[in-house]
Amino acid sequence: MMFRAGRFCLALAVLTVFLPPAAYASVQAEHTYALAMNGKPLYPANFKHADYVNPDAPKGGALKMAVDGTFDNLNGNIIFGKDAEGLGYLNDKLMQRAWNEPFTLYGLVAESVDVAPDRSWIEFHLNPKARFHDGVPMTAEDVKWSFEALRKYGLPVRRNVYGLVKSVQIISPHDIKFTFGKGYDREDVMILALLPVLPEHYWVKHDISKTTLVPPLGSGPYKIVAVDPGRKIVYQRVKNYWAKDLPVNVGLYNFDTLAYTYYRDDSAALMAFKAGDENLRIEQNISDWMTRYDCKALRDGKIIKEEIPHHSPPPFRAMIFNTRRPMFRDRRVREALGLVFNFNWINRVYFYGKMERLTGTFANSVLAPSGKPAGLELSLLEKYKNDLPPQVFGDPWQPPQGNMRAREAEAMALLQQAGWVYQDERLVNARTGQPFGFQIMIHNTRDQKIALAYVRDLAHIGITAQVRKVDSAQFTSRLNSYDYDMVIWRWFNSLSPGNEQVAYWGTASAKMRGGRNYPGIENPAIDALAKSIGSSRTYAALSARAQVLDRALMWGDYMIPLYYMGYDMVAHDVDIHRPQKTPAYGIVLEAMWSQPHKGNND
Description:
It contains 17 helices and 26 strands. With 602 residues, it is α+β, with helices and mostly antiparallel strands. Strands 1-6-7-9-8 form a five-stranded antiparallel beta sheet, with helices on one face. Strands 20-19-21-15-22 form a five-stranded mixed beta sheet.
């Protein structure tokens, strides 16, 4: 769902020179209105608007949503504080993402770019019409200042990429060039193009490294007009917004006001929605969706419930084996423990049969493997076959089928092969007599019921497992230090996977405190496959590499995949409307609008 703003310390010398643009011209550079991570942009240079918007959507009305918790910061550029919802609307970026393409950026503050064939440098050409909310023009100096400030104080992923920049050259008031040093990759120009342009003349009088509850000066489609600290924030549409007629913005930002009200918990937020205090809600809890929306407003047709399909990889949630533990190093053991997980019972009892089982890291998307490998997939697998299980050459991994008694028998056979025997109603090590037992670490009630159900499944084959629920701080600490036997956690993927795959699955990450290789995978084939994704020059190549990586991970049995929904659960007032087409990534709240209901003629 696109209402969430994306979040991405190395200090390097910055060169600032004023030279004529011709001095940097290159016959090899590509001059373009858009940047695609792989392949070509979907829309031509003269496109009028995205195909997932209504270009004639009326302006007006209010969008009112609930948020759990509280906030204490309106400076969304730093790692400190709890940001208020919606801060991404305040500042325009150099380029803007389209949500019906895997990863393509179109001109916003930068109306065009020149980029090196190897993406070692990029030059942004700013739109002369670009203005901050106080009417001051945006310049290359603002871009440079924003870059330097966010490289020093910004979010970690952003700082990591900005730290690879070797030099910054201001060529003219509207032209600026960034050159990367060692260690850059093809995706880094894309991350750099998502740089928010901040007003230097405002921030030199304020401390950008500090949290604040004073609304900062912006340039985007909305500005903050009311703040009740920790309780509510209200944005107003900027009617003279400089970029409102650009193709990337046509049909977007239709509500006159956006209001986010904070509640102590989600139950209170749901009650507020049903009472009419809020007019749109994105539901995350399937049980609430099925049982707690029976209210007069719904029965009277004043509230609409929609299940809106999307085709984006959902969060890859799993029960993750820590292969750093001796008991989980044998793949046969991990496969056996996956066989006894009774997803069908959990889905029926807890989720009303509405969940789908995850079949891989890129489930529900075009990146999910299908059929037996062929072409580039097959050649990659042949290259790394010595480090991968033979099953990768067959069909993609699928959840275990058949009745539980047969699966338990199959699991016991695998465990016996791995050196475990069933004695006195316990599974023990055949050599040492040590019972098979482990702990499952969780941090919320939702995962607790899944873990407890799995504990019952494991008891059927003589394994004693315990569930350990810890608070958020302890969970984060133990997750970062890999202090667990098994943990229920997740990874996020997109239709344009990149270097995060190395962080997820690479050997170096497995040994790094705070890394995201939670299973502790150390496999040279998976290292190479994860690294190769970021260097893909075409989407076909990226897809093939992602599919091979998926096969390697799933047939390695490093985790027990859980479940997902291939749709967004959205409830809203009948006066809230959305375009007919939903992009692959899901609903785009910015494309919705308010219009009085017309009854049966609507």
